[in-house]
Amino acid sequence: xxxxxxxxxxxxxxxxxxxxxxxxxxxxxxxxxxxxxxxxxxxxxxxxxxxxxxxxxxxxxxxxxxxxxxxxxxxxxxxxxxxxxxxxxxxxxxxxxxxxxxxxxxxxxxxxxxxxxxxxxxxxxxxxxx
Length: 130
Known about the structure:
Layout: E1 2-5, E2 10-11, E3 16-28, E4 38-49, E5 55-56, E6 61-66, E7 71-72, E8 74-75, E9 87-88, E10 93-101, E11 110-115, E12 123-127
Parallel strand pairs: 1-12
Antiparallel strand pairs: 2-3, 3-4, 4-10, 5-9, 6-7, 6-11, 8-10, 11-12
């Protein structure tokens, strides 16, 4: 696991890095079963491939936890969501956008976890969600 402040880049040691491009408070719009509109955080992440081989972004997993108890946030199928997909070319990068339901009064501490592929170290970013 690689833990970084929200405004720092994280690396897994094999040439793959990630960083939080932005973290924005929004009024999320729930679409589909189980999605409830309300206060949310929209996280834009960048995944960079510093290797000499293409890397799939199809299996990237992103989670968000909030508050001092690090409660897991529910993903929200908001229209602004644009998860990672496709392949990242050598020396290339791609961005993904994820939206999570997070109460407005529970954003002093958030933790964003990024797993770019099964078995790889998890990249964890911590900081304020305000």
